[in-house]
Design brief:
With about 725 residues, the chain is of the alpha/beta class. The chain contains 25 helices and 13 strands. The two termini are about 30 Å apart.
Length: about 725
């Protein structure tokens, strides 16, 4: 590696780097044997059109991307090396995106990045005061979302300058800004280079002429550098007074060389800069050369010779092994992200209240609307009985549930059912009173005509199972009550009317089971699970899309630290949700709980945590909000239907039951039901099995999210 005149190593040395995206036929080369040298204390302008690989190169320099071939050395070592401050405090990074938290103040923004860099509050305060004045920013308590576009750009630049980095990387800082602001940004950079001699600046732009103020420029096209030298030197050697025309000239010549190489691999294009009428604009310029431009092959040989002479700080560095050595989370970074998340939640008070209230609304609606008996059901009555027992039977019907509507004939009553105006018809013949007495008094001697005459004909609309079953139960109960009263009045044993089956006191539950009590444990589990899933489904998507996550990780934030901080923040919300959920379910609506309440609370929190980890997976898998929302919503009904929440899994086809028992809520719902309705504790197999499977799912999903996020980055 070539030394500077003062004997120092270059700040950045990129040697024959190749980088591709995709695999197989879709593999696309982005960096193609690129070589670059940035001297310490210089302003290096990396110029080139959009899509030429500038951002990819910068991500390799800051350690956010690995290279396929070649080597990148920054500030004397490989990015990501143990003890190296890149990614970390040694680099200040301003991405092309604004990458600012809109709900933060200017002070919040710089405090957050300052904590990631390990700065003290005193250091952060002094730097904030300096940068506010240096960059002419508004009051530090002003919200970022209230700033103009130019002010946001300067806040982003201030965040990159905060820790006084040795290396400052600015990716398209002037894109989309007016010329006056662009000029001011360059003035700031020149001041930084003059006042902070330790700072090396790499700035990318496709506004080529503005880079004439840089110490050195690299002209990049299609993943390679066409030339690299001082702007004045390039224009002098090519005898062109415009840097943009120099770049255009080099692009044309590079295109000619590529066409020539494609036509004949044996023909080497050579040229001489001494002939002003024929300039070798396809050639590459070595930063150590002050005269002729070098051909591509010559430059590669020069860089190879430099590599043989260089001594690295740690020559045995392996990026993969280094990442394993430095994977332990740091409390300061977790705390910084945690405080950031809490601040954003406080600034979105409406959303926070919605997250708190929504589970309570869901359990209230469940308790009010599910499991109760339908009431005021219209039922047609055709009573042709000439005695009194027909009216006596009708008086025993539950008037709250059954609204009796009398009809003169059966045909008219049945028409109301066919038209959807009533749920059924009860019909009794004219000899009902006489025949019912004979039925009970004559016993085995009663004939079929008497049996038919003493029967109540019931015609029901069976399209609604719950209503039809409830009506049958009400009619059966009314008949039992009517028969007992009638037999007692006739001096007969009222037990004659009872079925020869005696239902004893149940082992668990009560003798009149409620569908609400059956569903309540699963509903508590499902509300907690899916609300927690929704909390974390969008965690990384917005930050990834806006460049916030990438910027934080360049500042030294690790994937595991970010995940721990997000889960910790959302867990606070989850605790409040579970508390309100159980208060409404158990205290307000008296859902019975026979087991220890502590195990109910712990299981609900564990299921919420499991839901959060599932949301994490959705968040890292998807790149767009729409995809994540669709994935989260699409998981709701299959899991509800297969987990035994709405209907027992014993009713599921056997082949489908294998899927059911593998879901995270199935055994957890059974465990919750065992605690609430059976009074069991953690020592029971059905209970601790639910806890164990929940913990297993949570651990697996969390590791999966971490691995996917790591791979995608």
């Amino acid at each position: 590696m070539a030394m500077q005149d003062n004997g120092q190593l270059p700040a950045v040395w990129v040697d024959n780097v190749h980088k591709s995206y995709g695999r197989g036929h879709s593999k696309t080369g982005v960096l193609k044997g690129l070589c670059m040298t940035v001297q310490q204390g210089a302003i290096y302008g990396l110029l080139g059109p959009s899509g030429c690989g500038k951002t990819t190169l910068l991500r390799c320099i800051v350690g956010r991307l690995g290279v396929d071939e070649g080597r990148v050395v920054v500030l004397g070592n490989v990015p990501g090396a143990r003890g190296h401050g890149i990614p970390g405090r040694q680099v200040g990074y301003m991405p092309q995106e604004m990458a600012l938290y809109q709900k933060f103040t200017i002070s919040d923004t710089m405090t957050y990045f300052g904590h990631l860099h390990g700065m003290t509050r005193t250091q952060i305060g002094k730097r904030i005061d300096f940068l506010l004045d240096f960059l002419t920013l508004p009051d530090k308590h002003q919200m970022v979302e209230q700033l103009s576009g130019g002010q946001k750009r300067r806040v982003s630049l201030a965040s990159a300058l905060l820790q006084e980095p040795e290396l400052l990387i600015l990716d398209e800082p002037t894109v989309g800004v007016d010329p006056v602001l662009r000029e001011k940004i360059w003035e700031h950079l020149l001041q930084i280079a003059q006042n902070m001699t330790r700072t090396t600046i790499i700035i990318t732009t496709h506004y080529i002429e503005e880079a004439r103020q840089a110490s050195c420029v690299g002209l990049m096209r299609d993943g390679r550098l066409l030339a690299e030298d001082k702007p004045e030197t390039l224009m002098h050697k090519l005898k062109i007074n415009s840097l943009e025309l120099v770049f255009l000239h080099l692009c044309h010549r590079d295109q000619q060389v590529r066409e020539t190489e494609r036509n004949s691999q044996d023909v080497m294009f050579q040229d001489s800069v001494q002939d002003s009428s024929f300039q070798p604009t396809s050639s590459l310029m070595s930063p150590t050369e002050k005269t002729p431009l070098l051909s591509h092959s010559a430059q590669e040989a020069s860089y190879q010779q430099q590599q043989n002479n260089v001594k690295f700080v740690d020559p045995a560095v392996d990026v993969v092994s280094l990442s394993l050595c430095t994977c332990l989370p740091r409390c300061r970074n977790i705390a910084a992200v945690f405080v950031k998340n809490v601040t954003i939640l406080k600034r979105n008070i409406g959303f926070l209240l919605f997250e708190f209230i929504l589970p309570s609304i869901q359990i209230v609606l469940f308790c009010l609307c599910i499991g109760r008996d339908p009431f005021n059901l219209h039922v047609g009555i055709v009573n042709h009985d000439t005695g009194v027992l027909g009216k006596m039977f009708l008086s025993n019907l539950d008037n709250d549930s059954v609204h009796q509507i009398p009809y003169e004939n059966l045909s008219a009553a049945l028409d109301t059912v066919r038209q959807g105006n009533s749920w059924g018809v009860l019909a009794m013949g004219q000899n009902f009173s006489t025949d019912i007495l004979l039925r009970f008094s004559d016993g085995p001697r009663v004939d079929n005509a008497t049996l038919n005459g003493s029967s109540i004909q019931v015609y029901l609309d069976m399209t609604n199972q719950q209503i039809s079953i409830m009506l049958q139960q009400k009619i059966d109960a009314a008949f039992q009550k009517f028969a007992h009263t009638m037999l007692e009045g006739a001096g007969l044993n009222p037990q004659i009317a009872s079925l020869p089956i005696k239902i004893e006191q149940p082992i668990y539950g009560n003798i009149s089971p409620s569908f609400t009590n059956f569903m309540a444990p699963g509903i508590i589990i499902s509300i907690t699970f899916f609300m927690a899933t929704g909390l974390t489904t969008m965690v990384f998507i917005t930050e990834k899309r806006e460049g916030l996550l990438d910027r934080s990780q360049v500042a030294g934030l690790k994937t595991i630290e970010s995940m721990i901080a997000h889960i910790s923040t959302q867990f606070l919300v989850l605790i409040v949700q579970v508390a309100l959920l159980l208060v409404f379910a158990i205290v307000v609506f008296k859902v019975p709980y026979l087991g220890p309440l502590i195990w109910v609370i712990i299981l609900a929190l564990l299921q919420g945590f499991c839901g959060m980890t599932l949301g994490m997976v959705f968040s890292v898998v998807c790149d767009k909000e729409e995809s994540a929302i669709q994935l989260a919503l699409g998981s709701v009904y299959p899991m509800l239907l297969l987990s035994g929440v709405i209907w027992p899994i014993e009713a599921i086809p056997e082949w489908l039951r294998y899927i059911s028992v593998c879901l995270p809520m199935t055994y957890a719902s059974e465990a919750m039901r065992s605690v609430l309705s059976r009074g069991w504790d953690i020592t029971a197999f059905l209970v601790w099995r639910g806890y164990l499977i929940t913990i297993g799912w949570s651990t697996g999903l969390l590791l999966l999210a971490a691995v996917i996020l790591r791979i995608k980055q």
